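Researcher: Here's the sequence for the chain we discussed earlier.
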Amino acid sequence: MPGAAPAPWQLDAPAHWRAVDFLSDLHLCEQMPRTFEAWAAHLRHTDADAVFMLGDLFELWVGDDMAALPFQRRCLQVMAEVAAEFAPRRTLGFMVGNRDFLFGEQALREAGLLALPDPTVLAAWGQRWLLSHGDALCLDDAPYQAFRTQVRSPAWQQAFLARPLSERLDIAARMREASMSRREFDGDAAADVDTPEALRWLHAAGSQTLIHGHTHRPAQHELAPGRWRHVLSDWDLDHGHRAEVLRLTPGGLQRRPPAGLP
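Model: Thanks. This is the structure I predict for it:
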């Protein structure tokens, strides 16, 4: 049986905010340059007051010493430049996902990011919007939930991060290969968000709307009368044409293409 629904951290939107962009599951890596460029262009050209990245921004992140690698350094620099150029008019928020849950405080500081615990309630325009990566809600994916419990423990993370970077990258690559074959840890896994659990989270948060990623199944679902969940799109502009932003304004939610695309 699930335990108590997590108590969300609350962020109160400043009075001057008029738009917030949500995105997730970009899985940025060197092998996806078009996706990287589209993401960087959106951060630079959006007119939103905040961009909240709700997990799996990176294909993998095995510790903040990855910031020394060329591609990861470039990603952090993009965010740091946007945060510096547009401060305080634009806030960049980051919530870890199942691929980048080891993205730590050092990387957050270097990139100029606001840490968003999972879950977070965004209080904006008279409503409470519950934000999550979504993986913790996929209860039917029992192998993944066991894995998640293991790797989110402080003891496991301390032992893992004590290994050399090359060894951690090799372990992560093997995990990735296993997930591709078993589909247990992948965002496209057969498991989806558990509706009763999502409703428990919404009730605990005093919210009517859940916004999440992870499942790579962009859609809108009515969980119960007056209770909704909106699933973010994954991005892939290197093997297809998939990229979408969910924008929140005082008028509600709207799906739209990333800013700055040619």
